[in-house]
Amino acid sequence: MEIFQMGWSPWIGCVKSSPGCLRCRAPKQIKRNTFDFETPLRWREKKRIQVCPWSDFYLEQADEWRAEAWQIIRLTPWHVYYITTKFPERIPSCLPPDWGEGWPHVRLGVSIEMHSFEWRAWRLLDIPASLRYLWTQPLLSYLELRDVLATGEIGWVMCGGEHGPRYRPMRMEWALDLRDQCLGTGVPFFFRGQSAVVEGHQPWLVEPDGRRTIWLEVP
Ligand code: SF4
Question: Is 56 in the pocket of ligand 1 (CB under 6 A)?
Fold first, then answer.
């Protein structure tokens, strides 16, 4: 089972800003996606929605469209929205005026691909949200997130390797170590798959003794 059921792209296109972006296939040109902008209004059944899978919700280049996107989200409280970013420093200035302690149906997450970007998790903790999560894919190094997880302010962690013909391999011990940090702090851990040419066919962890552990804990 996947975390998200649908992707919603009110805009597409992005700027490569971080090592995790290296193989990203988001287009370079950033533009409003008129075709998809109001799609969540048409989904009458509850969906778990990944926001901006081909961009970043907080891009400066999208400032002029964001209020309208928030309005779509505001009008569809039966969905659950997941907004993942590599720019948590931009979140406070991009939130809607009535955000308060966080809208109940909106989850905020940060993407952390390697040790040097763990600071993004701390920035996320400064922002009120009904639930916060960490998205560690493509995982490119060991992460040390114990202190962040021990705050009890992170709802879940997702981990996975890179995909595509020139993927950078994820070492299984990085994922196992992160899984153990989550177990030790009581944070749900979701393993999305090993690095591979094709996405999504190995949703298991290989334990040091060779056993495979299936981790499909959906938040
Ligand atoms: S921030 Fe995300 S969408 Fe943008 S280039 Fe990087 S990986 Fe791609």
Answer: yes
